[in-house]
Amino acid sequence: MNLPTRKLPLTTTRVALLFALCSCAALSACGSRDSTPQITSTPNPRQVNVDIAIKDAPGPFDSMAATAYYDVGNIDCAPTRPISGAQLGPRERLSVELRQTGPHQYEATMPIDPFVDQDYYGLGVCHWRVVALTVKGTRLKRTFSAMLPGDELLGSGSFATYFQKQSYLDAATPMDVPGVHNLNRFASPDDAFSIDISAREARK
């Protein structure tokens, strides 16, 4: 069962774990003892502005998309699954609308706390947290994925994800390209382009 998508106007190891968690959130269903709990939305969530810059790419992307991922940090508020014995709290994702502000620049506004901390299972209050924002640029048959982790969103931080220019030029061959976060992984900086994501708290 896919999670509902709601439309709204590091280190390599750490980032890989975040990508895995986001992939799991995109594919997994949130379950209570017998059914999915009704998640309560925050009436006036705190907002952050996000700026995205594509630097030194060999050409434009055909499309850009962004998704915000959220989960519950204290999984003891969720029931134990009967077969696996694992505890898995609620997870949600929200589609984030991107606005193009220049040839290689985009911006967006996204909520940090869109869901209410609540006792969803009768086992104690579940506390929501933002996991990450992912940005995906598509060129022909390839998707280039960048990410800003949740703590950077909360701290008004920034993150650069680097990709091989040759991978862009070979975009007629299907592939999902996650990128890396260390420019030194390339023989020369001239071999790479980047998707840079930065966050700043929205003015009230």
Automatic annotation (TrEMBL):
PROSITE patterns: PROKAR_LIPOPROTEIN
Keywords assigned by UniProt, alphabetized: Signal
Signal in keyword set: yes
Signal peptide location: 1-28
Domain of life of the organism encoding this protein: Bacteria
Protein name, entry field: Lipoprotein
Organism lineage: Bacteria, Pseudomonadati, Pseudomonadota, Gammaproteobacteria, Lysobacterales
